[in-house]
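[step 3/7] inverse_fold.run input=structure_tokens len=531
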């Protein structure tokens, strides 16, 4: 093997909020973080505009926050997990403050709280309006840089887990030109983000390509709720890839959604208007665009001249796209934003494989059900990253002695080619279009079967290329799970089963083996109607 890694070294895959938080919470234990992009780049966490939801206002309670989380999740949230999530929120916000996150405060020095959709109280802590993700990551990266026990390997992407008898033995990683690195470890934490980049229109960075989900599934881990992909209603519609976000906090502050006739189209659709659950707003925006009426976020009256000061990130994104949000409504479209599904984990981030933990967006804890509540994603990342670290600490599988604290020597060998060629890019483009068109905001059996058929052909063609094989595996599992759920619920909307069905009021779980068997059944059935 190509490294002299200690058996009990902890390896964390991914350097977003969840990965960095696990490492910091484990200090002074020796840990290694492996990340495809330089620290702070390529992590969805850095791009998060909204903030972190925590019931810290007088009169608000963790119980009320849990109830909102459960209601948003449309009947399939794991209530135990939701209560853990919300009851540990205040503690984790304190942790982030202690690492130096400059959350916004009022003149009295109290944390400023804002309102987002489907929250019954003002409970989102933010930084300079829309810079929470960036500021939290900046603080955590600085903290990580001061810790001699945390080794960061940048430029390597984990693509394959090594296992023996249902237990993890290491992670295979590759760098851009095909250099291979094997990290031998019995304690691996996957914190590698979501799946947005499998879709043509997404708010996520290209690194959010679902590879970690496929790695876990190929190693035998069970996945959960993979059909539930959340589309953010207000990505800026200016042909950029990824699509820049116009944070929901704008609507929280009173911005309205209008079409090109100036009609507020959310008003007749839901009592909460623009602050209705995200899936409902996303579908309404999708319909206005599809019908040619257009959809725009109008911030002129409520934010107006203060835009640049209050929402500097969105202001810059608008400007880059040639839009002046002070005088013009912002054209918007829904974009794949967050995966409620992922690697099935328990309340301590343990997966179904020994020695494999998962946290952050790649995990499916059951906290979000069919639809995530705004600003619960960074919260989930820190709460469950903290619990993963606690669990690893309890297991005492590793030593914190200073002797072992020194950084490990890495030896790299040249092996297989993982470079993405232009022919691969063409297929990735086609995959993203298929996912948008057939496995996107609206789905039906015929379209899902079409997508599955073509994705399967591509997966067969690319089975020897790890990156493509991983991406296509995840895309296919999402498609198969969406085909199987014959109802509409939260982020999963079926035009051929447009009602919520009590029979389906449960989470879904799937292994790769089950997914392959189901794919065969779907593709062998007549027009995808059987099953
Ligand atoms: C937003 O700022 O609208 C996104 C926040 C989130 O996804 O929770």
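[step 3/7] decode complete -> sequence:
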């Amino acid at each position: 093997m190509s490294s002299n890694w200690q058996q009990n070294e902890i390896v964390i895959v991914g350097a977003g909020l969840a990965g960095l938080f696990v490492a910091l919470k484990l200090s002074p234990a020796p840990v290694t973080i492996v990340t495809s992009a330089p620290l702070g780049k390529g992590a969805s966490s850095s791009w998060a505009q909204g903030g972190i939801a925590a019931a810290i206002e007088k009169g608000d309670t963790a119980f009320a926050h849990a109830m909102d989380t459960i209601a948003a999740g449309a009947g399939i949230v794991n209530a135990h997990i939701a209560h853990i999530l919300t009851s540990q929120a205040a503690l984790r916000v304190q942790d982030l403050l202690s690492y130096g996150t400059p959350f916004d405060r009022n003149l009295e020095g109290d944390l400023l709280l804002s309102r987002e959709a489907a929250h019954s109280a003002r409970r989102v802590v933010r930084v300079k309006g829309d810079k929470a993700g960036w500021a939290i990551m900046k603080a955590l990266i600085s903290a990580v840089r001061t810790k001699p026990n945390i080794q960061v390997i940048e430029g390597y992407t984990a693509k394959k887990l090594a296992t023996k008898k249902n237990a993890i033995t290491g992670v295979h990683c590759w760098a851009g030109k095909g250099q291979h690195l094997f990290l031998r470890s019995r304690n691996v934490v996957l914190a590698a983000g979501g799946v947005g980049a499998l879709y043509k229109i997404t708010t996520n960075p290209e690194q959010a390509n679902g590879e970690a989900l496929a790695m876990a599934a190929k190693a035998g881990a069970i996945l959960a709720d993979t059909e539930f992909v959340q589309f953010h209603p207000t990505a800026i519609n200016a042909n950029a890839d990824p699509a820049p976000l116009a944070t929901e906090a704008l609507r929280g502050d009173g911005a309205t959604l209008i079409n090109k006739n100036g009609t507020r189209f959310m008003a007749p659709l839901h009592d909460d208007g623009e602050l209705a659950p995200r899936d409902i707003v996303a579908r309404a925006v999708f319909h206005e665009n599809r019908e040619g009426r257009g959809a725009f976020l109008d911030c002129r009256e409520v934010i107006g001249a203060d835009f640049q000061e209050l929402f500097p990130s969105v202001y810059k994104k608008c400007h880059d796209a040639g839009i002046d949000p002070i005088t013009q409504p912002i054209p918007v479209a829904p974009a794949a934003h967050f995966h409620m599904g992922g690697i099935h984990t328990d309340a301590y981030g343990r997966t179904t494989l020994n020695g494999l933990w998962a946290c952050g967006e790649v995990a499916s804890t059951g906290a979000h059900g069919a639809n995530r509540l705004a600003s619960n994603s960074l919260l989930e990342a820190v709460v469950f990253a903290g619990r993963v670290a606690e669990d690893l600490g309890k297991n005492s599988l590793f030593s914190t002695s200073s002797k072992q604290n020194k950084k490990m020597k890495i030896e790299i060998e040249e092996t297989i080619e993982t470079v993405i060629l232009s022919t691969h890019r063409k297929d990735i483009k086609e995959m993203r279009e298929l996912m948008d068109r057939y496995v996107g905001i609206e789905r039906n059996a015929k379209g899902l079967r079409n997508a599955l058929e073509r994705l399967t052909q591509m997966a067969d063609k690319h089975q020897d290329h790890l990156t493509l094989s991983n991406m296509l595996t995840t895309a296919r599992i999402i498609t198969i799970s969406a085909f199987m759920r014959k109802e509409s619920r939260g982020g999963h909307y079926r035009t051929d089963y447009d009602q919520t069905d009590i029979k389906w009021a449960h989470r879904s779980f799937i292994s790769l083996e089950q997914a392959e068997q189901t794919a065969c059944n779907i593709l062998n059935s007549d027009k995808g109607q059987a099953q």
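[step 4/7] annotate
The pocket of succinic acid is lined by residues 49-50, 247-249, 338, 374-375, 377 (CB under 6 Å).
Residues 232-334 form a domain with the Flavocytochrome C3; Chain A, domain 1 fold (CATH 3.90.700.10).
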